[in-house]
Amino acid sequence: MPLNPDYLMSLDRDEIVQEWSWKDAAIYALGLGYGDDPLDKRQLRFLDHAQQMQAMPAMVNVLGYDGAWLRDEKTGVDYLKVVHGEQAMRMHGPLPVEGRIRAKTRIVELVDKGPGKGALIVTEREISDAETGEPIASVNHNVFCRGAGGFGGSARQSVTMERPPERAPDGTVSVSTPPQLALIYRLSGDLNPLHSDPTVARKAGFERPILHGLSTFGIACRGMMDALCDADGSRVKSLAGRFSAPVYPGETLSIDYWTESPGKAAFEMRVPEREATVLGSGRFDYMMEA
Ligand SMILES: CCCCCCC[C@@H](O)CC(=O)SCCNC(=O)CCNC(=O)[C@H](O)C(C)(C)COP(=O)(O)OP(=O)(O)OC[C@H]1O[C@@H](n2cnc3c(N)ncnc32)[C@H](O)[C@@H]1OP(=O)(O)O
């Protein structure tokens, strides 16, 4: 069944209220590979509530996450062909270590890459404190539906991603991922079997389960914070990027970054072993000081 653009654009999703504790924040951080050096204070900050704990700001990407509509047959989405296409987050303030949020997801745009090609579903999620109503973050979660193009929609995307500068990067950060990373990351909520079941992964066209896009994205946030923010989550303003190739758990990820102006950097994440760019067109905005 082809995509049903009218149905998708008319979806009115319920607001989601979600509570989280410091343990959820720690499990989220473990799903980004934190704890690989248990003596590193900069890592323990995201894992141990007794050590002036912070929540990783990228955790906003999983708070109030609403992906259930992708399994609604009336959308015409073939869930097996879905991959995460792009992600962007904008912080409106630091994320508390525990709390309760309200979030609502809206589908704001459909992009048609043409017959036989893909379609992109652009979503937007506003997250606010459930008690005070204070905005916490805005998130774009863009879903790439492989082979779903040709439904007659616009080929132009309103917000497009910029490529990094041509010059050599100003620095590179590497993060090694353990083979069980996707099995840890899924405990933060995305139970898509593409990341855990080898049979499903093969049916979807991958040699084995791939890493969640949001784990890759969180690792990019971790790397950029390490490089430019002294690993201080409260200095992160925004992060964006496009998933250009899958990551397999166990791979080492290299993040090249370019500082463009004070508080603004571009980045690209690679798997050097495969010479693959896995997260392209990265952008990171941050505070120069705490
Ligand atoms: C709200 C809740 C939502 C929840 C959904 C997510 C659930 C999760 O569990 C799923 C995941 O986490 S999947 C893991 C993370 N994602 C990935 O690994 C995808 C990696 N990328 C790919 O495989 C390909 O780039 C691929 C397949 C994306 C595109 O490859 P090709 O088809 O070969 O594309 P290509 O020929 O290069 O280009 C075609 C047109 O599409 C644009 N494009 C390419 N990659 C894109 C991407 N990642 N996002 C958006 N657009 C993209 C190209 O620019 C091109 O457009 P145009 O013709 O206009 O130039």
From TrEMBL:
It comes from the Bacteria. GO terms for biological process: fatty acid beta-oxidation. Pfam families: MaoC_dehydratas, MFE-2_hydrat-2_N. Residues 163-263 form the MaoC-like domain. This is Enoyl reductase domain of yeast-type FAS1. Residues 155-175 are annotated as: Disordered. GO terms for molecular function: (3S)-3-hydroxyacyl-CoA dehydrogenase (NAD+) activity; 17-beta-hydroxysteroid dehydrogenase (NAD+) activity; enoyl-CoA hydratase activity. CDD domains: HDE_HSD. Residues 21-147 form the Peroxisomal multifunctional enzyme type 2-like N-terminal domain. It comes from Roseovarius indicus.
